[in-house]
Amino acid sequence: MPLRPEPAEHRQTGYQAAPVLDPPDALPLPPAARDLIEAKEHLAEYGLCYLPGVLSANERDELTAALDQQAEAERSLGPLAPPSARADKQLVSNMVNKGKVFLDLVERIETDELAGFMLGTNFLISSITGGMFHAPTTEPQPLHRDQGYVPATVNFPAACNLFWVLDDFEPDNGSTWVVPGSHRWKPEYQVKAPPRGMAAQVRVPAGSVFAWDGRIWHGLGVNQNGQPRRSITTFFCLPWMRQQENWGVSCLQEVLDSASPKLKARLGLRTYGTLGGVNGTHVEAENATPLGNSDVVFPRYIIGEGGSLHPLERVHKA
Ligand SMILES: O=C(O)CCC(=O)C(=O)O
User: Fold this and answer.
1) Which amino acid residue places its CA nearest to atom 9 of ligand 1?
2) For residue 233, how many other CB atoms are within 10 A of its CB?
3) Where are the domains of the chain?
4) pTM of the shown model
5) What are phi and psi of 231, to 5 degrees?
6) Which has the higher per-residue pLDDT, 284 or 98?
7) Tens of pLDDT, residues 206-233
8) Of the given ranges (157-166, 197-206, 278-287), which has the lowest mean pLDDT?
9) Predicted local confidence at residue 289, as pLDDT
10) How far is the CA of 66 from the centre of ligand 1 (A)?
11) Residue 219 CB less than 6 A away from ligand 1
12) How high is the mean pLDDT of the chain?
């Protein structure tokens, strides 16, 4: 007998995949999930789920008021306004820096459970974005997969979206088009968008969390009635992937100073194996383990050529 290695389980997360759908058919839309257990079952089967009644009326009002205020402030920045601030569908990006109320979504039980189910316990914030319509639109967004930059042969979720729904998502106000079950298609169907006729438009009540697997084909609908259809999108990824926002540069120091250890870890300030360290002058790190995960402690200086010391500068409020 030639010497051969022993086969072993190699999954990094507890995600349980449903069987491949071959031929690549669309499933019906899932019903509302009754609890987190059912929500996870829907994620495995349909690749998406929505769980109503997650945000209380007060939480929804607070998030809506904070989003409205932020959106208006960014629209008022004149020539400095970010590109989408004056568009009919305004996106408010990098919400990590825009209020604790948005960051609190990351630490909720629903986030731990749903993103953790798809990505394992060490998942990272890839981006946090608010969205609202200011006027009707004419074109739907092309169908796409959020992990379109990951090779199609990757047969597990590498990213996932959790939408915190602040206004009812209805076909008239541009609710999301989705192709349920498309996360279970073979890789050759995960590259080119399927015919639009395979997609269905969701109806998700305000106060829900609406989640999908990064492999699901989907796209924003056409807003016909000019209603705002507001939401906050928390987008997460595996701990060994690049994040959508370059937090290392753009996260304000004030935010890090007041962040809980869990939030810091979600922002990437906990090493994952050998990834994510900040190397510089000596730091006293209480919890550092040679090959395990540990909180990143910023060194006072980065060491340059010839041992020159460069203070580690971080982004502060002006
Ligand atoms: O807002 C939606 O319904 C979907 C948005 C989306 O898929 C995107 O912006 O990439």
Assistant:
1) 220
2) 18
3) 36-237, 247-311
4) 0.95
5) -160, 160
6) 98
7) 999 999 999 999 999 999 999 999 999 9
8) 278-287
9) 60
10) 20
11) yes
12) 94
DSSP track, 261-310: HHHHHHTT-B-BTTBS----S----TT--SSS--B----SEEE-GGG-EE
3-state SS class at 200: strand
Q: How many angstroms is it from 221 CA to the middle of ligand 1?
A: 8
176 lines ligand 1 (CB under 6 A): yes
Between 3.10.20.280, 2.40.30.20, 2.60.120.620, 2.120.10.30, what CATH number should domain 36-237 receive? 2.60.120.620
What's the CA-to-centroid distance between 176 and ligand 1, angstroms? Answer: 7
* Atom of ligand 1 at shortest range from CA of 229: 1
Ligand 1, atom nearest to 174 Cα: 3
Q: How many CB atoms within 10 Å of residue 66?
A: 18
Q: Is 42 touching ligand 1 by the criterion CB < 6 Å?
A: no
Q: Encoding tokens for residue 316? A: 């502060």
Cβ atoms of 43 and 211 closer than 8 Å: yes
Using a 10 angstrom Cβ sphere, with 0-12 exposed, 13-18 middle and 19 or more buried, the burial of residue 5 is: exposed
Q: Which atom of ligand 1 is nearest to the CA of 221?
A: 3
For residue 239, report the distance from its CA to the centre of ligand 1, in Å: 23
Question: With bands split at pLDDT 50, 70 and 90, how would you rate the model's confidence at 291?
Answer: low
